[in-house]
Amino acid sequence: MTDTDAWTPRRPLLSGALVALGCGLLLTGAGVMAVFAHGVPGYVQILYLVPVLGGMFGVLRIGIPEVRYALPMLVLAVLLIATVPTGLRSAILDLRGEHVAVTVTEVVHEGGRSYASSNQYHRCKVEAVDGSFWVKSDDAKCGAATRPGDRFQVLRDPGDLVSASTDDSTPVGFTLLVPALGGALLLLTVLGARSLNHTITNQQQNT
């Protein structure tokens, strides 16, 4: 018995749907973990890769060799990886965030050879009424030209559930995030079901 035969499910449509949905939930969970782990050490955040790799492996496993299904499934998986952390952070700030005036007390420039290099990554320690915290370089407020003593506003969660944002644009709310995420998971589930069903059907016809 080959590895493919041993894995062949009796109900490929249902199995493909469940595997694809599980992979999508793994990738979504990884994004959620990345958002709420903003204050933990970097080596702990490496655990984020575990569900990401597991989800990607599952997507490729049920998508290949059906390229017409594998490619859109891969695109959806990458979109989940890229957008869930940003979207969830934005939605939480939209729901709970408060605009707070802060003063820069320290600026850290990382990467890049020159002080104003576009390849630099910037972090700013800022002081608010209720204490100090760090913000990342979302835009020009915390960038190469930022100096201690600069003042600006940030959008901050009062419970520090997610990292603060210096972006002045309107955050993405849960009313947009939830339907978009649900639609992506539904489409991934349908593609997974059809891909595995098509693969199993072809195997049975060739035997």
Provide an overview of this structure.
The chain is α+β, with helices and mostly antiparallel strands and 207 residues long. It has 2 domains: 3-94 and 172-206, no CATH class; 98-156, OB fold (Dihydrolipoamide Acetyltransferase, E2P) (Beta Barrel), CATH 2.40.50. It is built from 6 helices and 4 strands, in the order H-H-H-H-H-E-E-E-E-H. Strands 3-2-1-4 form a 4-stranded antiparallel beta sheet, with no helix packed on it. The protein is elongated. The two termini are 13 Å apart. Mean pLDDT is 85; it is low at 1-6 and 113-117.
Structure keywords:
54% helix; alpha+beta; 207 residues; 4 strands; four-stranded antiparallel sheet; elongated; single chain; OB fold (Dihydrolipoamide Acetyltransferase, E2P)
In short:
The protein is α+β, with helices and mostly antiparallel strands and 207 residues long. It is 54% helix and 16% strand.
DSSP summary: helix tally: 6
Percent range for helical residues?
A: 40-55%
Strand content: 15-25%
> How many distinct beta strands?
4
Count of distinct structural domains: 2
Oligomer: single chain
Radius of gyration: 22 Å
Pairing-aware structural class of the strands and helices? alpha+beta
The order of strands across the largest sheet is 3-2-1-4
Low-confidence stretches: 1-6, 113-117
